[in-house]
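Handout, tutorial session.
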Amino acid sequence: MLKKLLKWAIPPITLILLGVTIYGFHLSGRIEKRFSARRWHIPSTVYSDTTILYPGQHLNIDRFKEKLRDLGYREVSYRPQKKGEIRFASFAVDIYLNDLKTPSLTRQGFLTRIRYLKNRIKSIERVDRTDLLPILELEPEELGKFYGSKRQRRRLVSIRQIPQHLIYAVLASEDGRFYEHPGFDPLGILRALFINLRHGSIRQGGSTITQQLAKNYFLTPARKVSRKLNELLLAVVMEIMYSKDEILEIYLNEIYLGQKGAVAINGVGEASFFYFGKPIDQLSVPEAAVIAGLIKAPNYYSPYVDKVRCQERRNTVMQSMYEKGWLTYKELRTNTSLPVNTVGFKSYGKKAPYFMDYLSRQIETLYSPETLSSLGLSIFTTLDTQVQTAAEKALKKGLARWEKSHPALQRKDPTRKLQGAIIVMQPKTGYVLAMVGGRDYGISQYNRIIQSRRQPGSAFKPFVYLAALDKFTTATRLSNQPKTYWINGEPWKPQNFTPDSEPDVSMRTALKKSLNLATVDLAMKVGLDQLVDQIERFQFSTPVKPYPSLALGAFEVIPMELARAYCAFAADGVLPYPLSLRDVTDENDKVLKQTHVNIERLMPPAKSFILTSMLQSVVDDGTARALRENGITWTVAGKTGTSNDYRDAWFVGFTPDILGLVWVGFDNGDPIAATGASVALPIWAELIKSLPQYITEADFKIPPGVVKRTVCSESGLLSEKRDCPEPMDEYFLAGNAPSARCPLHPRPGTLKKIEKIIQGIKNFIKRK
């Protein structure tokens, strides 16, 4: 009977085994294809620029502390012992630096002490060597990520980086016999079945780590017998093809461990930072148990949802570790009573959102959206987060202040509120250090720095004076009297913003006081066609027409382009390309091919210096002199601007190292009852004062080709100080300096000679 049974049973069993074997080969092909290709889509990460510190540098202590916290440093009460720890004292800060890896520098973390006195860095010391450092570079700050459709955050780690106690915690929680079974665990299945039958509900699963990985990678979550059989077969094939450590490494990088808004936290590497703000190799035993405990139900046991429930789950994991001999009784007793301390719930929302949008436009010309959301690129930008924060705060405070003093400007509808925008650049490099495209990105994503077109008003006048420097000098006299100009058969009669009785003024005075009549007179002397040619060299994208009103900024400009044009004055005549992107590296830290940008010299350094010196007069003694009243005592050049009917208010100012543009106005063009000096300038002042690291006491350097002469303030011709009542020192291009002496105020000796000659003539006539 048994022989008959075997005779009939062997063929179908053989067919079944053959079928399973063939299907197993099919599954192995799927597994090989999946695991040999890119296993995960890793979003590209965007970083700010690094922060440079050096002895003697001015420092905003409060903003520096804020910067360290934003970088993820954890404040401790003792001397820092681990990377990422800081301790603040009265006149120093101890920092255990994190590792730094950028395209230009790789550095292991070490303990350093920065001493400061009166908001200036006194010294930087490497504590372990007692070496004084001439310069220190802090790591860049993460600004955001380019996500794909799955919106997952994952920080890949190798099995060698994962501490043993975390591995034990995961095995104790999920699969205690992982290193013993062939992919499925019959004992685990029976145990789970018994527990579930006893309780009359599903209390425990029998899936191994390998089965969980098979389900996550290849199957749907549907609860069907066929899916469970597929899961089991996949697990067995995976165990045949890969080592236990390889399977565990993939699993630990794959598992879902929590949620932040629309972004999923995947893998133990990312979870370590999300929950505890530290690299995975720095996790303590109870912290590792927290992460392992989350696998069962991440959002239910999350410490950000319920710390008590999380602590109970953590203790269950540690109890299991103890029972399996992976934790001593002393360690269990000590760690069970500890509270769950997390790094704090941090938003993954965009930082510097207008800048990030601008960056996206630039970088998507180089890389496709699919590449950005899958290849795990590291994108290093020019943004300085301290400058960005200062700009956001200055704009918000300045607009609120103006609305409070002018209640008629307040609007209930947030989309119609008074708006403003700021861009900060490095003139010589074109680096965009900060960009604030509007009052509130959440309400309006319209970036007024790069998308709006507004009349610059008097902020455009420097380009008129620049065009005149080939023919005229800063001492040339201009008519300041009313005139009528005819445009397309229509009369146009400009007026000064405020009455000015001087019939004629020097070029420097005309720009300093922002006199409309004198500026239009100069434009007509230069020639409107020549003026248009000069302006077009600055590459404004808005059309320019040869009308006299062009001299007063009557045509529209894009704020970014105006800021870029001003950079040429501070950069020795070179027009930079606005850059948001510095470097891009792949997941292996290899720098990808860089795109070169063209820069153009628009004027010799001598000419840019002359124009800059005129803009210094605007700040020292002209329409922007309120800067001095706002506490700006160092070298600054700049220009205010107000358009017709007070629709736009501007201030563009720069030092030898930094340039900032501020615009204020309504999107619909309503008047704002403000000049550039009254509303935009104070915002600029508040911004710059909060950035002492960019403050320099140095003056703009005088280049070759510039000469200094003493001239009469009335005639603009050479004068000795004892001759004219108001002599002044003036800068000239070397080939354009005056050579004639002032005829209005002859020297005393010369006057006596003339009187003697006249008297001699009179005596001669009498004798005749």
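The second record follows below. Compare its token runs with those of the first.
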Amino acid sequence: MWKMPQTINELFQRNVDDFPDREAFVSVSYMNGEWLRYTWKEIDEISDRVATGLLNLGVKKGQKVGFMLTNSAECFYTYLAIHKIGAVFVPINVRLVLREVEYIVENAEAEFFIAGHEFIPLVDQIRDRLKAGVFVGIEQKGQNLPDWVTPFSQLLEVEKMPSVVDSKPEDVADIIYTSGTTGLPKGVVLTQANKVAFGRMLGGSLGFRRVHYGVPRLQNVFPFFTSSGCSSVMMMWLYYAPVVILEPVFDVISNLELMAKEKPTVYGGAPAMFVFMLNHPKFKEFDTSSLQCVMSGASAMPEEVIRSMQGAWPGIKVYNTYLLTEGGTGGTVLDASDAMTKLGSSGLPLVPDQELRIVDQNDNDVKSGDVGEIIIRGPNVMKEYYNNPKATAKTLRNGWLYTGDMGFCDEDGYLFFTDRAKDMIVRGGFNVYSVEVENVLYEHPGVKQCAVVGKPHDQLGEDVVAFVVLKEGICLTAEELNAFTTDKLADYKRPRDIRFIDALPINPTGKVDKKIIRAEYIK
């Protein structure tokens, strides 16, 4: 009999029962560097062994397991193993420094830690200060692990298969830490119910169906330690059972080579990734004709990039998203049918249960077209910030998630993201939204990337500064680019300070890291 799965384990088991011999996942192995293919049955068997190995190490239901690894096949089946025994998954950004890793592991109260071989030296420096008492190292070919680390291969060698722990919808599934672009990272607590609801809602909003024929193939490079990786991609995969093709790192050439080989029908990436791909001189040398749609996430998609996609892939469906880790990761999706008619929009709330409002500082709804704070609610919204009741109370109020992001809805209800509240620039008493300025700069044919931030000003309070990366072979002065904005932006929005740089700092989720820009370039 058909039933609605309520937990991660139930979602996964449904796929194993329905599609045991169907290809489910393609990725490189961290342990030996080989590309591997798994059916649903094979992933079930290998995650069973890892789950049993974790049980043998003492991992119990509800305990937190820190996980630090680059994109690889081991990410997917270890995630499933952790949930098979009812433990809590705590992903850790592989680009963090020692102090940041220590903060997350301690804040999450993780008692177990699984890390790739290359991160073991970092863990060694802090292990005496951590609550975690058991460390598992995922070996790499030809490398040895220290004696205090349990080899991951030992988990794979067990034969006895465990009984799946009976998880409840209200049980905590993951604690995912925010990127920290507005301060110290906060642990977003997501329940089993949050995760399942999100997979259903995001996949449905992006046009996925649970099909037995013509199975979609989804290629992406979102780091698994981000909400895009272990929530967006993972939960759509579990709910709708497409084939996932996971890239280890983003590199334009290897990405295009993989695309030509694996023939994905769907590609998911951040706006910066599409900019790099479409502007690469060898882009047209690769066969990307299998693509039927692209999904953009992690930050707002510039209008000119959407137009470039339409030019590169005639007839391609382009979905633009506005998603939040705290929303599990819920928010809005701009349907492909609206890509050109609602340029610049992030679309409508996820179907069927996401709700969205725009409010002023007094929590009153604003009129269509007026900018305010974006707030959302739905079954996907986080339970809380872990061990942070003050931040929880500030963010979750009266059943609504206050995002800290600014935007407006047009008369049709479509969301237009303008800025994070922190990124809004107040110049001489006028609000300037960096995304609006960036969209205009992207219209210039010589601009490859740009980021707009505020800088202190003695008289105005703040002024607008733009950091611009030019396309190869383009010569452009600040005066010329400023003049280009004259008839496109109000005088107070135009950047008087334009600085050309070789590259913008990008964080692991594909967002331009404005925190680094402010720290390193704004004096």
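Points raised in discussion: Residues 275 and 438 are 14 Å apart (CA to CA).
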